[in-house]
């Protein structure tokens, strides 16, 4: 019996990393900004701490007025007045219901699928955490909006045709204007930590045509070929 227990424990340790304590009891400065859960958490050895973030809309949905876990749930499109309660362990929002259920205040215990893994707040909604991400050199932004100023004419951004405000991590963003068009140049503004990659193909397949990071903010990039779509990825500690 003892041997059996030992074997199980060894498998558990080798397979996935777990933190049993709730993050709200060990992390500090918990906040909710633009649907990002942000906190500063201690590393396992207790010598350091890391500020990291979890983007909640790609993990939670509004199901007929009730917050529930769901990949790409996008609860924010039908909920308002969201805040953290219970020391940051719980998300509370006022969410739209349906004809069968009334609008109302709803809560979700975030500690069910979010925990501190060696200093990083991570969600295991899509499966057990088996490795800890590297520490980013970018701080969690104070302003999550980044603007892309684009022109469909090859004019070194002298005249612009579109101003896109982006603030969601997105594998591929294609602005469907209902007509064929491509962007020829563009500038990123107020970029505190996003990597935005432009692609010629509408589905972001193929090689990157241009890459925006905080190091080339306010710089006009002229694209070698017309760009149709962008991937939008956080560079800071984010899940
Ligand atoms: C990440 O940062 C924490 C806190 O500063 C530190 O304890 C840890 O060693 C760092 N990890 C790596 C892989 O650099
Ligand atoms: C996710 O982590 C929690 C603890 O935070 C654990 O109870 C649960 O079993 C984990 N789920 C998965 C799918 O790994
Ligand atoms: C824009 O002009 C530059 C310089 O002439 C050229 O290298 C580039 O291919 C042009 N881009 C597009 C999308 O036509």
What is the secondary structure topology, with strand pairs?
Elements: H1 2-15, H2 23-26, E1 28-33, E2 36-42, E3 49-55, E4 60-63, E5 66-69, E6 79-85, E7 90-95, E8 104-109, E9 114-117, E10 120-123, E11 146-151, E12 162-166, E13 170-174, E14 183-189, E15 194-199, E16 208-212, E17 221-227, E18 229-234
Antiparallel strand pairs: 1-2, 2-3, 4-5, 6-7, 7-8, 9-10, 11-12, 11-14, 13-18, 14-17, 15-16, 15-18
The structure holds 2-acetamido-2-deoxy-beta-D-glucopyranose (3 copies).
Give a description of the structure.
Mean pLDDT is 91; it is low at 1-14. The chain has 2 helices and 18 strands. The chain is mainly β. Strands 12-11-14-17 form a 4-stranded antiparallel beta sheet, with no helix packed on it. It has helices spanning 2-15, 23-26, and strands spanning 28-33, 36-42, 49-55, 60-63, 66-69, 79-85, 90-95, 104-109, 114-117, 120-123, 146-151, 162-166, 170-174, 183-189, 194-199, 208-212, 221-227, 229-234. Strand 4 and strand 5 form a beta hairpin. It has 2 domains: 4-12 and 140-234, Gamma-B Crystallin, domain 1 (Sandwich); 23-123, HIV-inactivating Protein, Cyanovirin-n, CATH 2.30.60.10. Bound molecules: 2-acetamido-2-deoxy-beta-D-glucopyranose (3 copies). The site of one 2-acetamido-2-deoxy-beta-D-glucopyranose (NAG) has 5 residues, from loops.
């Amino acid at each position: 019996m003892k041997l059996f227990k030992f074997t199980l424990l060894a498998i558990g340790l080798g397979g996935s990393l777990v933190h049993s304590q709730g993050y709200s009891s060990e992390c500090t400065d918990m906040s909710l900004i633009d649907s990002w859960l942000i906190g500063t958490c201690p590393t396992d050895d207790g010598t350091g701490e890391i500020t990291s973030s979890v983007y909640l809309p790609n993990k939670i949905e509004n199901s007929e007025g009730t917050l529930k876990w769901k990949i790409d749930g996008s609860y924010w499109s039908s909920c308002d007045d969201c805040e953290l309660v219970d020391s940051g362990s719980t998300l509370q929002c006022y969410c739209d219901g349906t004809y069968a259920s009334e609008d109302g205040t709803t809560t979700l215990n975030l500690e069910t699928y979010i925990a501190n893994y060696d200093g990083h707040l991570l969600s295991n909604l899509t499966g057990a955490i088996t490795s800890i991400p590297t520490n980013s050199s970018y701080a969690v932004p104070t302003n999550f909006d980044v603007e892309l100023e684009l022109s469909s004419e090859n004019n070194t951004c002298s005249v612009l045709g579109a101003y896109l405000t982006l603030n969601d991590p997105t594998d591929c963003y294609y602005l469907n204007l209902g007509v064929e068009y491509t962007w020829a140049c563009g500038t990123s503004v107020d970029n505190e930590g996003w990597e935005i990659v432009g692609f010629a193909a509408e589905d972001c397949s193929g090689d990157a045509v241009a890459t925006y990071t905080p190091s080339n903010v306010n710089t006009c990039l002229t694209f070698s070929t017309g760009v149709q779509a962008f991937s939008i990825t956080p560079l800071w500690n984010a899940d």
